[in-house]
Specification:
The protein has about 260 residues and is of the alpha+beta class. The chain folds into 2 domains: about 5-50, Uridine Diphospho-n-acetylenolpyruvylglucosamine Reductase, domain 2 (2-Layer Sandwich); about 60-265, Uridine Diphospho-n-acetylenolpyruvylglucosamine Reductase, domain 3 (2-Layer Sandwich), CATH 3.30.465.10. Helix content is about 30%, strand content about 20%. The protein contains 11 helices and 12 strands. Strand 9 and strand 10 form a beta hairpin.
């Protein structure tokens, strides 16, 4: 690991100020993505800004139409939230399959979204629910936030502070996970909120999370597994690696979408 300067601000304003003064600085949330590559000297940021003591970045707030989650909420804390379990049970169930207990105890929802790993679970939930990413500067709609593998709409001096999720009428998440890492070979999140029907897929796309518009169109007539029976997803543009071919991932998307629809409540 290369030498670095360490900061632990206590307010968002302080953290943003440090980012502005240090162009090559990196934010530290849970650290499960950043620290390993630093230990291998694959990354050497000269400045680390630890967000663990910043006030106001945790908690779950339930309103009449939405749920807001603080960016520094750990995966395990999100999963344990009784308020979230009651408001959006499908979302509360997502972090339970992330990694292992150590990862869930330290990793954060904001860190996951900022990193935007193409096999991560939260991007499917955020895009699948039509959430809004709230930062230190603005609000970003999910459809505009994800811009490719490990790429987001975040600017260099911008910090995720909260994520606001509309409360759906029905929603569910199904995942086929890698047995060792726990990452999603394919994960599918489905939701219905009025006329807004969403089917979001993680783990399969070469450019990260994406929506299956053909499924969404079919589900507008009836939000049920039978509505997409026999429908398939093209393998073009999907990941193909030692774990699964593009064709197999395409098959899994359809299977998991139908399973999620059967579970949606």
């Amino acid at each position: 690991m290369y030498a670095f300067t360490y900061h632990r601000p206590t307010t968002v304003r302080q953290a943003v100020g440090l980012l502005g003064k240090n162009e090559e600085a990196k934010l530290l949330a849970g650290g499960h993505s950043l620290i390993p590559v630093m230990k291998q000297r694959l990354a050497g940021p000269p400045v680390l800004i630890d967000l663990s003591k910043v006030e106001g970045l945790t908690g779950v707030e339930v309103g009449a139409r939405s749920v807001t989650i603080g960016a520094m909420m750990t995966h395990s804390a999100v999963a344990r939230s009784v308020e979230l379990q009651q408001a959006i049970p499908a979302l509360a169930g997502v972090p339970g399959s992330i990694g292992d207990p150590a990862v869930r105890a330290r990793g954060t929802i904001g860190g996951s979204l900022a990193n935007n790993d193409p096999n991560a679970d939260y991007p499917a939930a955020v895009l699948g629910l039509g959430a809004t990413i709230i930062t230190s500067k603005r609000k970003i709609a999910a459809d505009e936030y994800f811009q490719g593998m490990f790429t987001t709409a975040l600017e260099a001096d911008e910090i995720i502070t909260k994520i606001q999720f509309p409360i759906p009428k029905k929603a569910a998440y199904q995942k086929f996970k890698h047995p060792a890492s726990g990452f999603a070979l394919v994960g599918v999140f489905v939701s219905k909120r009025g006329d807004d029907i969403r089917v979001a897929v993680t783990g399969a796309g070469a450019n990260g999370v994406f929506r299956v518009t053909a499924f969404e169109e079919a589900l507008r007539k009836r939000f049920a597994a039978k509505s997409i029976e026999g429908m398939t997803v093209p393998a073009d543009g999907l990941n193909s690696d030692i774990h699964a071919s593009a064709e197999y991932r395409a098959h899994l998307i359809a299977v998991l979408a139908r399973r999620a629809l059967a579970d949606a409540n």
